[in-house]
Amino acid sequence: MPTTTIGSFPQTESLRKLRQDRKRGIITEDDYITKIRDCIDSCIAFQEKIGLDVFVHGEPERNDMVEYFGEQLAGFVFTQNGWVQSYGSRCVKPPVILGDVGRQKPMTVDIISYAQRKTKKPVKGILTGPVTILNWSFVRDDMERSEVCEQIALVIRDEIKDLQDAGVSIIQVDEAAFKEGYPLRKTKFEKYENWAIQCFQLAVSSALISTQVHMHMCYSDFNDIIHVLERMDADVLAIETSRSGNKLLKVFNDRGFKNGIGPGVYDIHSPRVPSVGELTDKIRQLLLVFPVSRLWINPDCGLKTRKWAEVEPSLRNMVIATRNIRKGSIEN
Length: 332
Hints:
single chain; alpha/beta; globular
């Protein structure tokens, strides 16, 4: 039962200001990189302190999971103020894809390699998947969406190869918007599923057998796409389940899902801090459905929108609860 998080840590006001200062030329690139590395140092030190098993670098350099990658790719442009409401008060600026997609250089290798040098624990490389980048962008209309997605998949494939070459052994590909791309008509579902699955498979096709591929999906009804998840065949699937209880997990058990799975053990969209006892009970419930050899323990989603005052005790309690289960105790 390895413990981990999905990727992002809190995006504080000072962190957002740091990125703005760089964008406006108020600070130099060297100063920016130094301060981003300081943030990564803090994230790694925190994870060491609470005893997580698989680390993340915290994503302090990323403004948004799609925008960050689009800014580094050919074929993408961005508006200055074209904000779109995501949920609640959170807004994003979807990119416009108007040309062929290409990558000039590795996008994440330097920063993940830096984080890995700071710890002996494995640090996950975190990438946004091709289907999510496509579905959360305004896409050119002179090509089939499937062709544009294939171009993005080739870019992600090359990034995975570069991460591996740098010694990264666990790579997570986020497909948060996979479900959102479904057509309105059910008669078109199969066509979408086929090319979307093929694009994900193309993106991860450079992964070695020794590289563990994780896939993360956000809030979805997984009952009706379990066949899709099986075909995508990630080594570990991290999904949301805390709001829906364990009813969504029954379908994985009924279908005989064989890969690793990380059902979120607490809801990151709530500021409430789950207690050790609550999380211990949650993990015990998960073990009624999944064998311990395939179970990962993680929150529902990234922690970008939360405050450190909520994140620190929640993750600490999650680790303590997992250790309690490992020891066969029910300490609080």
